[in-house]
Amino acid sequence: MESDSDGGNFFNKLGRLFGGRNTDPVEQAIIEASQEGELEEEEGSMLLSVLHLDDIKVEDIMTPRTDIHGVDSTASVASAIEQILEYGHSRLPIYQDNRDNIVGIIYAKDLLREAVHQDNLHKPVSVVMRQPFFVPETKKAMELLKEFQARKTHMAIILDEYGGTSGLVTIEDVLEEIVGDIEDEHDAPKEADIVFLDDGDVRLSGRAYLEEVNEALNLKLDSDEVDTIGGLLSHIAGRLPLPGERFTLNGRLFIVEKADSRQVHSVFAPAPDSGENGPGGAP
Known about the structure:
This protein has helices at 4-18, 23-35, 41-52, 77-87, 108-115, 141-151, 171-179, 210-217, 229-237, and strands spanning 63-64, 71-72, 91-96, 98-107, 134-136, 155-159, 165-170, 194-196, 202-205, 246-249, 252-259, 264-269. With 283 residues, it is of the alpha+beta class. α2 (23-35) packs antiparallel against α3 (41-52) and α4 (77-87) packs across α5 (108-115).
């Protein structure tokens, strides 16, 4: 993914295949070719995923602001290196005062150049940061993919309608919509957003989407303001709820398990009529 020539060939092939053509007949042709054995199943799936990038907004695939690992603009080069090593990313956003104010991007390779000379470790990271690339939440994934190619950059900061930081998207995020998850040695194992426990109890990630919670628990949770169960509980409470707080929605009890000052991480939903008030039956 770091090779400009490889990336160029990839984008050129996609451009020749889909440029200026109506997607409906192309999609039908891909499906028919797959059915007739002219395309392998995985190949057909990838091509259809490319077509559907035009239907995906960057807000659908971004890492939300609350999950962004960033570096304060006043931090030293040495401190930034420590955070690069801790989080395992090759790039990190630089913020000033708060994460709504992203002012730059720091690259691991730039930090390595500075680290060659011991005196440079005390420099503020702002001296070696690069300019950030901003895009709105509504930008389509296919458009962003083309801009990544044109700009020769791999990260974009996503802005909401008020100009605040909404999240970030990398070229890896976009490509994963085509080829599936791309994991490397730094990726921690991903936990399921919805885990069914014994006796009908359920543990939910705070980021579990309401539509998935509804399907899993046969509920009808809905909100015009938020998309996730953690967001819904925070919206109802009017603040970030504390661990142990309880909410009854559509007749189902939800208990906040883990939360911090930024987000709800885990929610426990005991089985209906189980008599349990929380994980392990704790009162």
